[in-house]
Amino acid sequence: MSQENQFSLVVTIVKKGWGDKVVTASRKAGAKGGTILFGRGTGVHENKSLLGLMIEPEKEIVLTIVEAGITDEIIEAIKDSGINDPGCGIGFVVPLDSVFGTAHVLCALDQLSKDEK
To answer: Which domains are present in the chain?
Structure first.
């Protein structure tokens, strides 16, 4: 199944423990859910040590596929959750050319297009 130009990917990279906060804010704004991946930062200002051992800052990457029409609402909800505070995270949006699979976010649209036929 392919749905062209109807979806955006909201990518949010936050400090460890904030992924659930981002997903909760996104869901309140209309998203159906999200996927949280774990990573680590490598920025210049992120190198810290404790007793001579380097501490690698852990991050959570939240991937949320949303309908293009509600992208701005999702972004505002994430901003309101505290991501704009210094050192909390960063986010960006990637327009999706096509989406495939049987995720529940697509099922409703698939059903609508079947009903229209």
So the answer is: 7-116 (3.30.70.120)
